Amino acid sequence: MTNPDPHPDEVDCAAGPHPDALEVLAPREVPLGGPRAMTVRRTLPQRGRTLVGAWCFCDHYGPDDVAETGGMVVAPHPHTGLATVSWLFTGEIEHRDSVGTHALVRPGELNLMTAGRGISHSEVSTAATTVLHGAQLWLALPEDARHGEPRFEHHVPDPVAGEGWEARVFLGSLLGSSSPLPTATPLLGAELTLAPGVGLDLPLEPTFEHALLLDAGSLTVAEGPLAPGELGYLAPGRASARLEAGGEGARLLVLGGEPFGEAIVMFWNFVGRSHEEVAAYRADWQGQVAGDGDAAAADAGRVVADSQDVAPGRFGTVEGDHRRPLPSPALPGTRLRERH
User: Which helix (H) or strand (E) element contains residue 131?
Assistant: First the structure.
């Protein structure tokens, strides 16, 4: 998914001391655009926190009645230096990308797209979808992986269950289940469902920082409650976290990873290491969507009408999607700052 903000904020994030208590990050609403604008709830990045491990972007959406919102229609757009993780609870999304992938995103199935040096893709909810509900997550790639070849991987995790709980581990390891997909940094990603009134001592990797995104129901972590849509941050050093589901039960995503030891620069759909690098990525994309390498023309609004006419460039061409590629927002008037 793209970052749909027409004027994305340059968020100046500082790494403050990690509190012993649960840190609750409230979401902000961001419209995807269009007359009926599907809205997502964004908890990463924000001023208080940029990263949880390598997780650097978290959009949570739905359940949305597609007849009312128009569903998801995200035209071809670029990415660099990151990997996208698509996870659905309800509905279906058609994914196409510039490495030739044509795949469907379905509930309980992981689509992992690694941008590396550059990729472009599109995402559109299918005609069969009546309710759309899920999460779109990004992972920052470390220096030794961020210039690699783009690729796409699909994985269907087998559920594991215990007394009153069920989990699907799509990255890393949790509750005796492991994903076979390799990651550039040590990571965890899982869906966890708790029955009404169930308590669980969730085992944690002490070297990881963790985040709990509550999708539905009610949940209390040992240190306090989480409301649906909120992201609860847990600092490294914990071997477990006590979770208590309310009367409706709870469904959440458990995210984690070793603290990301590199500063990054994020703007729109690009992750780099400096203002100059990100500006160069943007110029490459603007030139590509202008069809003739002329970034100034794209900035002036001259964008090709058909993605098939886009010169391949760094980001390639999304075959089979004829929507107009999304031009990049303008850079801010000041230098982009590093995020830690």
Answer: strand 131-140
User: Residue 257: what residue type?
Assistant: G
Q: Are strands 265-267 and 270-272 parallel, antiparallel or unpaired?
A: antiparallel
Choose among 172, 149, 41, 31: nearest CA to 97.
Answer: 149
- Give the integer Cα–Cα distance in Å for 251 and 195: 9
- Low-confidence winner among 56-60, 67-71, 84-88 (lowest mean pLDDT): 67-71
The pLDDT score that the predictor gives to residue 3 is 65
pLDDT value of position 304: 43
Strand order in the sheet with 93-97: 73-79, 119-125, 93-97, 102-105
> What pLDDT is recorded for position 188?
98
Cα separation, 241 vs 252, whole angstroms: 14
Task: Answer yes or no: are the C-beta atoms of 170 and 179 closer than 8 Å.
Answer: yes
**How many angstroms from the chain centroid is the CA of residue 208?**
19
If you average pLDDT over every residue of the chain, what do you get?
A: 90
Amino acid 307: pLDDT: 44
Q: Report yes or no: 152 and 113 within 8 Å, Cβ to Cβ.
A: yes
What is the C-alpha separation between 132 and 135, in angstroms, rounded?
10
Residues 6+ apart with CB under 8 A from 332: 10
Query: What is the phi/psi pair of residue 135, to 5°?
Result: -140, 145
Which structural domains are found in the chain, ordered by start? 25-257 (2.60.120.10)
**Three-state DSSP class for residue 246:** strand
End-to-end CA distance of the chain: 23
pTM for this one? 0.89
Q: How far apart are CA 1 and CA 76, in angstroms?
A: 10
Using alpha carbons, select from 232, 231, 264 the residue that is nearest to residue 336. Answer: 264
What confidence category does residue 162 fall into, taking pLDDT thresholds of 50, 70 and 90?
very high
